[in-house]
Amino acid sequence: MKRKEEKRPDFILLFGFLLLTVLGLLFLYSASSFWGEKYFNSSYYFLLLQIKKGVLPGLFLGGLLYFLNLKTLKKLSFWIFLAVLILTYLVFIPGLGIEKGGAKRWIDLKILQFQPSEFLKLAFLIYLSAWLSSSKLQKYKNKQQEFYFKLLPFFILLLLASLALIFQPDIGTLGIILALALLLYFLSGVSWWYFLVLVTIISLGGVALALLAPYRIERILVFLNPNLDPLGAGYHLKQSLIGIGSGGLLGKGLGLSQQKLGFLPAPLSDSIFSIIAEEIGFIGVVALISLYLLIFTRTYYLALKEDDSFKRLLAIGIASHITGQAFLNMFALTGLFPLTGLPLPFISLGGTSLTVSLAEAGILLNILKR
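-> C-alpha cells emitted (370 positions)
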C-alpha cells in the first residue's frame, strides 16, 4: 500500500519568518534598553513584554492556524470576520474601550489589552478571500449581476470596516485594508470599469478624510516639503532623517543610537526603523529589506502555482500585507510617503501586531506546504 506523502512547511519561508522574529527582538532590545532601565529599572523590560504579549500568543495562534484544515478556516471565515468586526466597534463602549493619544483603538479586559483593528486586517483578508473564491460568486458574468452580487456587497463590507476605523481614528490601518481589498478584488477577476469606479470612490474618500483633519493635512504638507516647520509638524520626519543619515554605510553599532534618547518620537513603535538604520547602517538595512522581499517573492512564486483560488488569494493577500506595511513604514520615515503611524511588522513594539504577524506566518506556511 502506497504511503501518503507527508507535506512539510516551505523551509525558505519558515527560515525567513524565524529570522525576522529573532531580529525583531534583537532590534527592539537595542532600541528599548535605555527606556526600560530608566522607567522600570530593567533594560529587558520591553523585550520581556514583547515576548509575553506578542511572541508567545503569536506562536500559539500561528501554530494553531498552521495545523488547522484550510477548508474549516474557509467555512468559519464569515464568523471570524463578524466577531472581529464587533470587537472593533466595542472600543467605543466606555469602560471597555480605552483611549491612548487621542485614539480609541484598544480594548481593556483587565487581564489583557489588545487592538482589535490589527486582527481586523487578517479577519478581513480571510473572509474576502473565501467570499471572492466562492463558486456561487464566479457564476455571475454580466455587468448587472456583477454589480448586485459582487460590487455592491463588496462595497458594503468595506463600509462596515471603514466606519469603525474612521471614528477611532486609525487611518493607517484603514488604508492598508482598502489597498488589500482592491488587490484581492482585482485578482478575483472583475471588469475594469467597476474596478476604476471603486478606486475613484476610495480616492475621493481619502481626500475627504485628509481635509477633515488638520494634522493629516500637515503630514501631507511635510511630505511635499520635508523642511517645513522642523520644530513643529516636520519635527518627526526631521529627526527620523537625522537618525537614518547618521548611520552611514555600516552604522554606529547595536545599542549606540543617539536618536532613541528622547529626540525621536515613538522610538520603540512607529519609528523603530530609524533607530535600526542608525545602528546597522545602509548595508544592514538592505539586508533587512531583502528579508521582507524574500518572504514576498517566495510566497508569490508558490501561490501562483496554487489551483485553489481561496488559498491563492489569501496567500497573496497576507504576503502583500506584511511586505506592503513594512515598506509603508520605511517609506514614511524616509520621507517617501506621509507619516502613517503603522508599525513595522515583526519588529515594532506591540503585542497585538506581533501576534497577528505570527498568525499570518502560520497561515502562509499552512497554505504553502509542499
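The first strand starts at residue 97 and ends at 100.
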